[in-house]
């Protein structure tokens, strides 16, 4: 099959892909531009799926992202990329067609980690929540009135879904192998506040609980979860909030540093080959990117944050159009927000490696507070629970590497409470039927 005309191809038609394509046009690129998307939809916003769409406040189609720049692009939607030939500079799609490229932006994002088929994952009534079709299917199941919803995983998606379902009046049980929700991201010192919110909402929270398998009835519909201790939880609808894996399977054999944790790129967002060299014609942005973050000692990170998808895509587009000797490093302070149980939660920075946390505004008991995470005496992250007024100042302190806590003597600052964050220790490898990670939302 003859390849289509070359130009810039963006693989991934979601937030990072769209904003990257727009940045290319704003940057003066006037050549052929193609966006490839596995889903049949134009780019849409994912955060509302676990909130407004599940609640019935928005139709899934109403989440479409605004297109801010005239793209003059070819859209290849509903046909996923399945192979990359770097030598020929071509991409093969699932429909058998071949796209040639001069430069390539990888923005394929991440995919929901499914429940293993060997442990009952093929039963009807078991849902994941990542894309528009997921939200549509889950919303229909909720409208049908399940007797008991079981959520497996206490990360962001699991907690947001629990909050939404309780607002709908549905009976909910959330199980997590850790002592509190969000323990791996925020630690148990803060996670205990989310646990209290869960229980106050009327949800049942089962910490330290491992699901081994799901069992179904004669029709193949889920009816219960079998736990590691031999007991069971009855449920006719399950949300498997097991975190995500990066959409990199199609890159097998392409000679890139790519695995389920992401595509490794250099500081300029150029993909690295298996040998470690930077590819001058392939760039990476968004959830799928794994890049060295200077602010945290150059360690490799990948984040599933809305702001990073937008900013990294724009930065990658800038470097794609720049000369080889003008490749600027991507400087970004990760940040995310979540709305659950009537609380707006915001985090700036990365909490991994923190050895202390200090509540510097408000109190945990009031569920309105601001806390700073420290590592070896340095401020590395700041967290707000409905107390975001000071958050920009703490973000600047994190960028500057100020001591922890960086701001003292503020007029509305109470006695500072400092403790260990309470991150759970790494768990031993799980049996084949049990997902290794079930706490990431």
From TrEMBL:
Domain FAD/NAD(P)-binding: 8-313
Region feature Disordered, mapped onto this chain: 416-441
Compositionally biased spans, kind Low complexity: 429-441
Needed cofactors: FAD
InterPro entries named in the record: FAD-oxidoreductase/Apoptosis (IPR050446), FAD/NAD-bd_sf (IPR036188), FAD/NAD-binding_dom (IPR023753), FAD/NAD-linked_Rdtase_dimer_sf (IPR016156), Reductase_C (IPR028202)
Keywords from the UniProt entry: FAD, Flavoprotein, Oxidoreductase
Record-given protein name: FAD-dependent oxidoreductase
UniProt keyword annotation of Oxidoreductase present: yes
Pfam families reported in the protein's UniProt record: Pyr_redox_2, Reductase_C
Domain Reductase C-terminal: 336-406
The keyword Oxidoreductase belongs to this UniProt entry's keyword annotation: yes
Gene3D superfamilies with a match to the protein in the record: 3.30.390.30, FAD/NAD(P)-binding domain
């Amino acid at each position: 099959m003859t390849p289509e005309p070359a130009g810039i191809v963006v693989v991934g038609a979601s937030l990072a892909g769209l904003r990257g394509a727009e940045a290319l046009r704003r940057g003066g690129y006037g050549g052929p531009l193609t966006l490839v998307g596995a889903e049949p939809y134009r780019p849409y916003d994912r955060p509302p799926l676990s909130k407004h769409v599940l609640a019935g406040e928005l139709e899934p189609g109403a989440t479409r992202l605004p297109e801010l720049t005239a793209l003059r692009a070819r859209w290849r939607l509903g046909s996923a990329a399945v192979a990359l030939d770097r030598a020929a500079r071509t991409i093969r799609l699932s429909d058998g067609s071949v796209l040639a490229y001069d430069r390539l932006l990888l923005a394929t994002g991440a995919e929901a980690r499914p429940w293993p088929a060997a442990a009952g994952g093929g039963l009807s009534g078991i849902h994941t929540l990542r894309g528009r079709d997921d939200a549509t299917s889950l919303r229909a199941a909720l409208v049908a009135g399940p007797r008991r919803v079981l959520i497996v995983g206490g990360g962001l998606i699991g907690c947001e879904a629990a909050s939404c379902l309780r607002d709908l009046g549905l009976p909910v049980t959330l199980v997590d192998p850790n002592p509190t929700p969000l323990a791996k991201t925020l630690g148990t010192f803060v996670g205990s506040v989310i646990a209290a919110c869960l229980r106050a909402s009327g949800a049942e929270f089962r910490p330290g609980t491992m699901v081994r398998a799901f069992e179904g009835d004669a029709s193949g519909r889920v009816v219960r979860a079998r736990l590691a201790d031999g007991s069971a939880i009855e449920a006719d609808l399950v949300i498997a909030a097991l975190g995500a894996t990066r959409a990199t399977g199609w890159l097998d054999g392409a000679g890139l540093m790519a695995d389920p944790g992401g595509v490794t790129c250099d500081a300029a967002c150029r993909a690295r080959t298996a040998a470690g060299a930077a590819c001058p014609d392939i760039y990476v942005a968004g959830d799928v990117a794994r890049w060295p973050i200077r602010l945290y000692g150059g360690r490799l990170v990948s984040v599933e944050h809305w702001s990073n998808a937008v900013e990294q895509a724009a930065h990658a587009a800038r470097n794609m159009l720049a000369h080889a000797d003008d490749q600027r490093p991507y400087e970004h302070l990760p940040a995310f927000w979540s709305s659950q149980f009537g609380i707006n939660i915001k985090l700036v920075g990365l909490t991994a490696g923190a050895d202390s946390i200090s509540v510097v505004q408000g109190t945990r008991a009031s569920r309105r507070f601001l806390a700073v995470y420290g590592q070896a005496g340095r401020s590395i992250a700041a967290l707000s629970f409905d107390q975001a007024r000071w958050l920009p100042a703490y973000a600047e302190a994190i960028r500057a590497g100020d001591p922890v806590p960086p701001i003292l003597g503020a007029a509305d600052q109470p006695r500072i409470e400092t403790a260990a964050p309470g991150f759970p220790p790494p768990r031993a490898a799980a049996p084949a039927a049990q997902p290794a990670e079930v706490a990431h939302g």
